[in-house]
Design a protein that fits this description.
The complex is a heterotetramer of chains A (about 400), B (about 100), C (about 200) and D (about 170).
Chain A lengths: L1 H5 L1 H11 L6 H35 L15 H11 L10 H18 L17 H22 L3 H32 L4 H8 L2 E2 L2 E2 L6 H17 L11 H4 L9 H26 L15 H22 L5 H29 L3 H24 L13
Antiparallel strand pairs in A: 1-2
Chain B lengths: L2 H22 L3 H25 L7 H31 L13
Chain D lengths: L2 H19 L3 H21 L3 H25 L15 H21 L15 H9 L3 H29 L1
Helix pairs in contact in D: 1-2, 2-3
The chains are: A mainly alpha (about 400), B mainly alpha (about 100), C alpha+beta (about 200), D mainly alpha (about 170).
Chain lengths: ~400, ~100, ~200, ~170
């Protein structure tokens, strides 16, 4: 029974495949997986938009949308109808073909990333040997669509937003990759299913997730910072900074194309949360061994939604960074910290079992964090804002 | 025609396109684009030879291609840095206009 | 320590997040069409015309002097002065506005018309739910729509209305005193020299 | 040859042609990414997964972005009025055609000796890593050095005049 519930989606897929002739079965399996992903994540996106609005409202002591349907739960449907029926405006001087292709490319590239995420036991669309590399390759391609959107609009705000977005995404892609490399080094594989398997065992009922090690915690924090910047979320939402740039690279998009960009951004958030879950939070494995009977996909999606909540929470808390603070933070703090973390991961691997490696690794990491942070603060690379002329 | 031969023909075509681009365009960045295409055609050759060669398990061709990708990235960074530097100096990226040795 | 401020901020927002579910007094907003906050006394948005008594047309304080029309910065007031005179609330014959239109889509709620009116005839309203589907005709209010009773004025701005009443009463008393004084004076003069004609009262 | 091969070949060659023929420089850069993507698909078709993904990551994710950045920094997106091709374009075209003729002739001459369809090799990332760390460790180090030098060089070349002006 528990086994069936755990594998319910896999069994469903096999049952549906069994209805078809044998020759079509492999193709049908892939199509079914793709359809499942393409239906599930936009539905999750719709739910997340309303939860985000309600969560932000609660953080600001408001109630949030509550008019459409019970407790405003049907708000995304109203929003969807609105954006579908809105006029699709293409500026006269815009580069029509590129302007049209940019949102499509973005959504397609983000969807591709889901193909390698293991969403439960045996629930992965393509178990690729170089899954992590595939994920990052697809993630890197979204930068181009952002540039295409900004450039083709022929609008200075769009172009500025796109250049900011691309510069930011390139800068934070380096720490993102570097913090994942530490996991790859310890797990010894680029395959995401193998990385989850490496974390899926317990001592005294507690899991061996990588976040519960010094290098894993540091890696997770740098990964989270880089992921927030990579998905252009607050406090790193300069590309869309509405006080400066109207709406950034999607200023000139309206109606359905704008909805596609919106979808793309949220899907990127889901996929990067899924990746973070897989790399550091044990993927689909249960947080305690006695909870092993709960279906694996439940754990994956709850961990993912928890990270989405943290995204919303941060958005409700932190003010937007300035461009120079953003770049200084990436290159002078996060990247060195990930490089130190790589060394720590090596040390962890070769110090062997025992309490010494915990002490050594934590001490070096804390020292590096405090040292780099204080040095950067003193030189004014980041930290509180200082005004030269006004006080 | 064997599969290897067709890959080689495509690579040769791509190489020639890149060469033609590098030789005929005025804009320095377009010349770099042509060179990138030529490098990529060479990569395709390396991978195709590795795949249909006698010892694919030795990984020689693939390693060569991976190193070549890394080198090409460095080449692009330096080349574009040079182009930006020249643009700052001469206020043009038109190669026909850069016919003097004196700065 | 580095990152301390971020943690502090995060704890503050999570307190708000959780607190807004348990204590309703944290919520700063109201559910507008069902729940309303009474407007504060100094609220103002668009002008209206005050009338005394029960009949809006007869009791209109406005005498169509057109000062407000001239002073209005965006020129949203349009007045046509009547050719005849009608008795006002106290029975004195006055001109009256044959037309008095305010385009509230142009009005900027500056209150200058109220400041300049010598007859306390135009005041600021608190009514804000004025949206219509007709953006030209629907937002051009004529004198019938603008006329609101003195009681209404007292209800929305009690303090200010009392001041206005006191001021009006004072003015009336002054004029009354003047007229009576003049009447007495002329009566006295008339008694002394009955042959001279009575000079102008006021 | 399969249909997929012809489709990818058409995509790649069309992307390459567009990259050198189009007037607008940004369009050229975008067409170049199409060619890069086609080549990555070729690599996947040739069972070189790792190289294919590395191609996408490096070329589409970095080189193409660098190219468009350079175009925008040099105001290259405005089409020059005196044509996009250089004065001696004919000579360049003849040379390129000659090179293609020689290469094509060489390939066609050797068709008979080229190997036929072979079994697909299974290459895991682990094998690639082992090869990189054992047999090819010296080239790896040299590439690392080269990349560092290129990084510093690119920064210095692009920043130099600004520093001098300060």
């Amino acid at each position: 029974m528990i086994e069936t519930l755990d594998q319910i989606f896999v069994l469903l897929q096999h049952w549906l495949m069994g209805l078809l002739p044998a020759g079509l079965q492999p193709a049908a399996g892939v199509v079914l997986g793709v359809v499942a992903i393409v239906c599930l994540f936009p539905a999750l996106f719709a739910l997340t938009t309303v939860f985000e609005r309600k969560g932000l409202a609660r953080i600001q002591n408001r109630i949030g949308p509550n008019r459409v349907g019970p407790l405003g739960i049907l708000q995304p449907i109203a929003d969807g109808i609105k954006s579908l029926t809105k006029e699709d405006i293409v500026p006269l001087s815009a580069d029509a073909a590129v302007h049209f292709l940019a949102p499509l490319l973005m959504v397609v590239m983000v969807f591709m990333g889901f193909a390698v995420l293991p969403m439960g036991r045996n629930m992965v669309l393509v178990d690729m040997d170089a899954g992590l590399l595939f994920f990052f390759a697809m993630g890197a391609s979204t930068e181009l669509s952002v540039f295409m959107a900004g450039w083709s609009s022929r609008n200075k705000y769009s172009l500025l937003g796109a250049m900011r977005a691309v510069a930011q995404m390139i800068s934070y892609e380096v720490p993102l990759l570097m913090s994942s490399v530490a996991v790859v080094m310890i797990a010894g594989s680029l395959s995401l299913t193998k990385i989850v398997d490496a974390q899926n065992h317990y001592t005294w009922g507690l899991p061996h997730w990588y976040i519960f090690t010094p290098w894993g915690l540091a890696g997770f924090l740098t990964f989270a910072v880089a992921a927030t910047a990579e998905t252009n979320r607050s406090p790193f939402d300069l590309p869309e900074g509405e006080s400066e740039l109207v709406a950034g690279y999607h200023t000139e998009y309206s109606g359905f194309k704008f909805a596609l960009f919106f979808l793309g951004e949220y899907l990127a958030m889901f996929s990067i949360s899924g990746l973070g879950t897989t790399l550091f939070l044990g993927g689909w494995s249960a947080p305690f061994s006695f909870l092993g009977w709960v279906p694996s996909w439940f754990w994956f999606f709850s961990k993912m939604m928890l990270s989405i909540f943290v995204f919303i929470w941060m958005r409700g808390t932190l003010p937007r960074l300035r461009q120079d603070q953003l770049m200084n933070f990436a290159w002078k703090f996060v990247l060195p910290l990930t490089l130190v973390n790589l060394m720590i991961a090596v040390l962890w691997r070769f110090l062997g079992e025992g309490w010494q490696r915990w002490v050594f690794c934590s001490a070096i990491l804390l020292f590096a964090y405090a040292g780099m942070g204080l040095a950067g603060m003193r030189r004014g690379h980041f930290g509180p804002r200082r005004y030269r002329y006004a006080e | 025609m064997t599969p290897l031969a067709s890959y080689l023909i495509v690579a040769a075509l791509l190489f020639s396109i890149g060469l033609a681009g590098a030789l005929t365009r005025r804009n320095a960045i377009l010349v770099l684009i042509g060179i990138e295409l030529m490098l990529n055609a060479a990569n395709l050759n390396l991978i195709a030879f590795w795949r249909y060669g006698p010892h694919p398990e030795a990984l020689t061709g693939m390693m060569f291609a991976i190193f070549s990708i890394a080198v090409a990235a460095a080449e692009a960074a330096v080349g574009l840095g040079l182009v930006i530097s020249i643009h700052r100096h001469a206020h043009t990226t038109d190669l026909d206009a850069m016919n003097r040795m004196k700065g | 320590m580095l990152g301390e401020g971020i943690l502090k901020g995060l704890s503050e927002t999570i307190k708000n997040f959780a607190g807004s579910f348990v204590s309703a007094e944290r919520l700063t907003t109201v559910q507008y069409p069902e729940q309303r906050i009474a407007p504060i006394e100094a609220t103002r948005d668009f002008p209206f015309l005050v009338y005394d008594g029960a009949d809006w047309e007869a009791g209109m304080r406005c005498v169509a002097c057109q000062i407000c029309e001239k002073e209005c910065p965006p020129k949203c007031i349009y007045i046509v002065k009547s050719t005849d005179k009608k008795p006002d609330a106290v029975g004195k014959p006055q001109f009256y506005p044959a037309r008095f239109d305010i385009d509230i889509s142009v009005c900027m709620s500056c209150q200058i018309c109220v400041e300049v009116c010598p007859f306390e005839a135009i005041k600021m309203d608190t009514e804000f739910e004025l949206s219509t589907t007709d953006r030209f005709g629907g937002l051009l209010l004529d004198r019938k729509q603008l006329a609101k009773s003195d009681e209404y004025y007292h209800r929305i701005h009690p303090t200010e209305a009392d001041e206005v009443d006191a001021c009006l009463a004072h003015g009336k008393a002054k004029t009354d005193a003047k007229t009576t004084a003049a009447a007495i004076a002329s009566a006295v003069r008339g008694a002394e020299t009955p042959a001279r004609p009575v000079e102008g009262g006021v | 040859m399969s249909i997929a091969f012809y489709l990818i070949a058409a995509l790649t060659v069309a992307g390459g042609l567009a990259a050198v023929l189009l007037k607008n420089t940004v369009h050229c850069a975008l067409a170049l990414t199409v060619a890069f993507a086609g080549l990555a698909l070729f690599f996947l078709q040739l069972d070189a997964q790792f190289a294919g993904f590395a191609q996408i990551l490096v070329y589409i994710g970095a080189v193409a972005i660098l190219v468009v950045f350079a175009i925008l920094l040099t105001r290259g997106s405005e089409t020059p009025k005196d044509g996009v091709f250089s004065r001696n374009w004919l000579a360049g075209l003849v040379i390129a055609a000659g090179v293609f003729a020689v290469l094509g002739w060489a390939v066609l001459q050797s068709v008979s000796v080229l190997p036929h369809e072979t079994a697909a090799p299974t290459v895991t990332v682990l094998q690639i890593g082992n090869a990189l760390m054992r047999r090819y460790v010296l080239p790896l180090e040299i590439v690392a050095l080269l990349l560092t030098a290129a990084l510093i060089g690119a920064v210095i070349v692009a920043m130099h005049e600004k520093e001098g002006a300060r």
